Amino acid sequence: MSNVSRAGGENPNNATSQVRFGRSVESKAQIDDAAAAGADFGGETLNLYRLEPIAAPTDPRWANSPGHGTVVVAARSSGDARIVATSRELDFMEIDSAPAEGVTTTNASSFRDDKLYSVTEIDHGRTDLERGLVDGKISVDTIRPTQDD
Asked: Is 14 within 8 Å of 6 (Cβ atoms)?
């Protein structure tokens, strides 16, 4: 079922728009920001974020995504801090035991769950850092075998 309605006139409504992607001021700014953010070059302005576990050790969410303790990362934003921490974990896509073709486990990281980890900015506007882990340890043994040998 279509939500297209036809108003009077000679030109039928074919549900297309004359707007072209990337021509508005907002689109151009987003494209420029994405291009700049994608380049890991020296002098990029980053912030320091501390990711701390906030859920109780008995919280059942830990069963699906193990914790790593407190870590500090250099990132562009608090959301990027979660992504930076997650990227240090081992993903099914990086080994030969993918649960299904094209399935990633990065979305299941404990760092991405705001009920398990809090993110706090501890320093702002640093240009002397590289995007990544600054302090703490992130284990790569997050993928557990389902069967014992």
From this structure: no
Instruction: Please calculate the CA angle 97-99-101 and round it to the nearest 5 degrees.
Output: 95
Q: Report if pTM > 0.70.
A: no
Task: Quote the CA–CA distance of 94 and 111 in Å, as a whole number.
Answer: 19
* Cα–Cα dist 84/78, whole Å: 10
Distance CA 94, CA 115 (A): 27
The residues of the chain scoring below 50 in pLDDT are 92-95, 98, 144-147, 149
Strands (E), the chain: 46-53, 71-75, 117-126, 132-135
Q: What is the pLDDT of residue 136?
A: 92
CB atoms within 10 A of CB 137: 10
